[in-house]
Amino acid sequence: MNVEIFKELYESFGVWAPVIIVSITLIRILLNPQKLREFMDTFSYARRRNIRDKEKSLESPYLDSLTRKSIQKQISEDYFYQSTGMRLDFYLRHAMLQLYEYSKGSITLPNFKRARIHLSYEDKRLKVSINKFEKLFGMFSGIFFLVLSAMAIFLALYLINFLFITDSTNILTKEVIGSAIVIVVYILVILWGSLLFLNIFSEIKNAEKIENFLHENPEFNDEYLMKEPVFDIAVNNIQAIEDQD
Fold first, then answer.
1. Exposed/middle/buried for residue 148 (C-beta within 10 Å: 0-12, 13-18, 19+)
2. Alpha-carbon dihedral sign for residues 21, 26, 30, 34
3. Residue-wise DSSP of 109-168
4. Over the range 2-33, which residues count as b (16 or more CB within 10 Å of their CB) and which as e?
5. How many Å apart are CA 19 and CA 16, to the nearest integer?
6. How many CB atoms are located within 10 Å of the residue 127 CB?
7. Global confidence as pTM
8. 43-97 pLDDT, tens digit each
9. Which element (helix H / strand E) includes 23?
């Protein structure tokens, strides 16, 4: 295989795949900026420092009870995020943990993490919101994942054959190296796209799993979750002491 065949193979795929992948990535960031915030938190120690600052601020005697409770809720949210990777408000977190306990392992925390953008807590009920377009897009995402994964594997095998088998005598030529760099970047974009579509497909499937469980167990929302959750750090501390004893 020569460089011209290599170029023709790359050009045959066109630019549609990178354009679609980048566009969908930007749309998902705009529609759900929390994902970007969580991604940035993963590579930053600012969150831990922020928790320490909040904990230190609680020592001030000038805080009123409402401000103190608000800070305590924020700290609770931060610690929950560090433990599970999910940034949730108190009420949705309460509903998720209640369902996790109620399902006895049928619904796991990873299920919640993948489906969380479709979950909400309204009117003392845990709700799953998936419209028909999202379900259809989720199905096509699974197909796109398979297609892009196959493309990435095919291009990677071709690159290996091109560089190390067929044209090993020309591997140091500028033309070959330049073409190889272009196709490597293209493979990385395709791999990113396959992971992106896999993530979308996984979100929909896990949300549907939770939705089906709630439909099959209506007593969870009707009876088990009807009691209004109360955030009381004093009660939590007493319970923690009792557990230690």
1. buried
2. positive
3. HHHHHHHGGGEEEETTEEEE---HHHHHHHHHHHHHHHHHHHHHHHHHHHHHHIIIIITG
4. ebeebeebeeeeeeebbeebeebeeebeeeee
5. 5
6. 16
7. 0.72
8. 555 566 777 888 888 888 888 888 888 888 888 888 888 788 788 888 898 899 8
9. helix 16-31
